[in-house]
Design goal:
globular; alpha/beta; 117 residues; six-stranded mixed β-sheet
């Protein structure tokens, strides 16, 4: 079951399925964003699933947002992607999480506000 949170202007989803786990944060805009910043949030815990290919992650997230934009007739673009550095490098899961964020916004999902203070 995904967990939806917000940290500042970033929408986040945490998704855990068996041994795989992903936290994805997105800073979104409406329109055509051309530059997407990648922001590592450090490691959480002691697990090690190998290193990420940031280009593959970015492409997965773009695909997830694009799929959601088509389904929900939205026009979100990505300004920034946040990720946990020792999460599972499963780019299909990142695409799914990106889709879930857009779906959640569209459907009025309550993103619990997360304070990092």
């Amino acid at each position: 079951m995904p967990q939806f949170t917000r940290s500042g202007d970033h929408y986040r989803v945490t998704y855990i399925s068996g041994p795989s786990h992903v936290l994805l944060g997105l800073l979104l805009d409406e329109g055509n964003e051309t530059k997407i910043d990648m922001v590592g949030l450090g490691a959480v815990g002691t697990c090690n699933h190998g290193s990420h290919n940031l280009e593959n992650m970015k492409q997965g997230v773009i695909e997830g947002v694009s799929k959601a934009n088509t389904k929900f007739s939205t026009n979100f673009s990505i300004k920034e992607i946040e990720y946990v550095e020792n999460d599972t490098p499963n780019y299909t899961l990142y695409a799914h999480c990106a889709y879930l964020i857009i779906k959640g916004i569209y459907e009025g999902e309550q993103f619990k506000v997360f304070s990092e203070t």
